[in-house]
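hey m, so remember when u said the tokens were messed up on ur end? i reran from scratch. heres the input so u can diff it against urs
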Amino acid sequence: MENFGFQILQALITDLDPDQRVKQAMNEINSSKRLKEAIAEQAEGAKILQVKSAEAEAESKYLSGVGVAKQRRAIVDGLRGSIVDFSSGVEGTSAKDVMDLLLLSQYFDMLKDTAGDPNCKTVFIPSSKSLGDETRNALLQAESGK
């Protein structure tokens, strides 16, 4: 336009219309970027879920262990009290007699629970030794194996 005395410094383009193939290619590029970001976010979400699940399971196992420890402590305290009460209440008995009685009562409780379970597949084999001796020996062997 300079030949006619006009100089164009700027031009405002309001309607750019590239070829249809160019538009489709640009849309595919944009779509691929968005899909790639979505997949990354989805994987990150799955990772967070897995980590949180593992943390919850670890906390659950810890609390279960604390509960078992408290239960065992209560059992030991109860047994200690029973032994002291029984030994002082019945003359001529020792702590060993009380422990034998407790083991025997636990044995009968286990038999009752096992017999009451219709799905039980347990077989009991009689022995020539006394139950208290067998149980005590088994406990001592288990303790020495640790």
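this time it looks ok to me. The two ends are 100 Å apart (CA to CA). if urs says something different then somethings off w ur setup not the seq
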